[in-house]
TrEMBL record:
InterPro entries: NAD(P)-bd_dom_sf, Sc_DH/Rdtase_CS, SDR_fam, Sec_Metab_Biosynth_SDR
Family: Belongs to the short-chain dehydrogenases/reductases (SDR) family.
GO function terms (MF aspect): oxidoreductase activity
Keyword set, alphabetical order: NADP, Oxidoreductase
Superkingdom of origin: Eukaryota
Name of protein: Related to NAD(P)H-dependent oxidoreductase
UniProt-listed CDD domains: SDR_c
Amino acid sequence: MSSGNFKTAAQLTDVSGWVVVGSGCGSGLGLQMAKSLAASGAKVYIASRRRELLDKIASEHTGPGEIIPLTLDHSDKQSIQTAVEEISKREKYIDLFLANAAVTRSRLVTTQPKDVNPAEYSRMLFEQPMEDWDELLRINLSALYFSCVAFMPLLAANPHKERASIITIGSISGTTTISQGGQYAYNVSKAGVHSLTKMLATDFKHPSIGVRVNSIAPGFFPSEMTVVEGDPEAWNKRKGVKERLGEQDDIASAMYALCTNRYMNGVVLHVDGGWLLDNPGSAN
């Protein structure tokens, strides 16, 4: 086969003209992915509750693609439905839904089980508010499910075979069996995202739908959610990051791999600099 039969790297990852909706894309990793897509020629609806922030982001974008603000309360089913209706008025279909909205409320337990007696460790864990569990599971898992389901018909309407997809944002915290300082609720919510991704991928691959579903499981990135008081070094020390924090190109290139490779479905792609190699499932 001659080299003329191969597409270039630029052609393989071309998203120009795509229509993308991203929930929770007003900051952090979501915003980085949205800006990268827009810079590559996509029309990106960034959805969040913070409309003033979204308007500012959109006004600062200079092209070549578009960034369009979309008010969406990820935790409210009516708000999700309203957002879907708004997009449906403007677009016949969408190419990609980024399910990025999430929160973290875990209160870390710095003491290790080996350092205290069982009763004392139990007390520390039991002090975690049940409300934290409720909110984390509601926002990070339940709301993500309803958003993916609601936007699925717009994806299924895509006329380009196998192009339409959903990318959920999980976490290495959902893969490792280390509680990372007792943040059980957050880790469980992200493990649920990984499992939900594979179930949705299984159902949505039916020919009548034809939507791929994959997940990115980031490691430690300097986003609003993961930097301790704006100090990356403090986060590195707390979480055992030995090399460096992830950068925006690291997360963007993973996103392009999942959304443009039409043979990838049901994948949980870890982007962690090898952290899981050292922390696969041992608390030692």
